[in-house]
Design goal:
single chain, 149 residues, mainly alpha, 4 helices
Length: 149
């Protein structure tokens, strides 16, 4: 074996080893990206929890304007996070579907004017809120997955 052949063989071996390490680094970077993405999508849960804190049941017979406004704001934030896939949908569904549905259904069923706003309850439901409601309603509970980090 000549020196040139030896150098070529060593170079080829080094290139193969470099390719293997690069592939491993690429796979690890992809896994890290996915983990970071999941962590980012879970960070907004605390903000959403704060938006839902103090949201009271809406009683159509006795509308309290601040309660209605706070409830609609919680619906709107939840809908935004849902529609733009900012927080994992499984978390939103599992945690907020029932209160979201209750408030939505209450507001949707009423054409009573909210004092001080002079808008009907059902008119406070934006297209974003309606879209999220429909999507959550269609979500099959058996498809909800659990994940670990």
């Amino acid at each position: 074996m000549s020196t040139a052949d030896f150098i070529s063989a060593v170079s080829a071996g080094a290139a193969i080893i470099s390719l293997i390490f690069s592939s491993i680094a690429l796979i690890m970077a992809g896994k890290s990206y996915n983990t970071n993405k999941k962590m980012f999508k879970r960070q907004g849960v605390i903000d959403l929890f704060m938006a839902w804190s103090g949201v009271n049941e809406i009683q159509i017979s006795n509308l309290i304007t601040p309660d209605v406004v706070k409830a609609v704001n919680a619906l709107a934030l939840t809908a935004t996070l849902w529609n733009h896939d900012i927080i994992e949908k499984e978390i939103l569904y599992q945690t907020y579907w029932i209160p979201y549905k209750d408030i939505y259904d209450t507001l949707q069923s009423s054409s009573k004017l909210v004092p001080g706003i002079n808008r009907k309850c059902r008119d406070l439901l934006t297209s974003e809120i309606i879209r999220a409601y429909q999507d959550m309603q269609n979500m099959d509970i058996n498809k909800v997955t659990q994940s670990t980090i």
